[in-house]
């Protein structure tokens, strides 16, 4: 049980990568707080975890709203008395358009969730970690945070920002025994990437299959990664095995490279 007696917050825990991380953490002994904006989704994952005999708490949370984040952290402390692990997974795809066609509102909304949300959750989880002289923060960024990503500028820039935030959290937290790392997934199989490809195909006026190849051909392994791959790396970083890794961005991308 690699996370026995640990308490972990997973934002965006109601589906996709967040759900799989939550289930994996719970199976390794952690009490998991499922923070998300859709009550039905986080409640369903809470039930999955509890039905397996493990501990979970669903807390309705808007990570872009500081008061909501404070309430989520307070609920966690009331229920479990501590926070050992924070996974900043909540995020949105943002608009698919050229920069001149993106509104200020779309830009701000993408940053509010993808980057400001991670900052707010870290801000309010850190005091307890500092007091106990230990903790782990994992930010789910993207391979798009390491290179240009045409038609997706708000998403790209927010994911680049997460990497800077991660390195700063590592620098500030190190003296207190707190690690901070980022995981940068490449294209991940599932409904979300299908929506991304469909929107991109429409914007570029190309067939879905042709755009889909643009997400697979640049990988060394010629395939997309899976949610379980991200969860496995998150578990490694959150466990004692990852205790001396901090300030890093770890690519889980099947070797994605742009030529």
Low-confidence stretches: none
Question: What's the domain count?
Answer: 1
Number of strands: 7
Note the total helix count: 8
The largest sheet is: 7 strands, parallel
Which topology does CATH recognise? Rossmann fold
Task: Give the SSE order as H and E letters.
Answer: EHEHEHEHEHEHHHE
Quick tags:
Rossmann fold, 7-stranded parallel β-sheet, globular, alpha/beta, 259 residues
Structural description of this entry:
With 259 residues, the chain is an alpha/beta fold. The protein has one domain (7-187, 226-252): Rossmann fold (3-Layer(aba) Sandwich), CATH 3.40.50. It is built from 8 helices and 7 strands. It has a 7-stranded parallel beta sheet with strand order 3-2-1-4-5-6-7, sandwiched between helices. α5 (153-173) links the parallel β5 (135-140) and β6 (178-185). The relative contact order is 0.14.
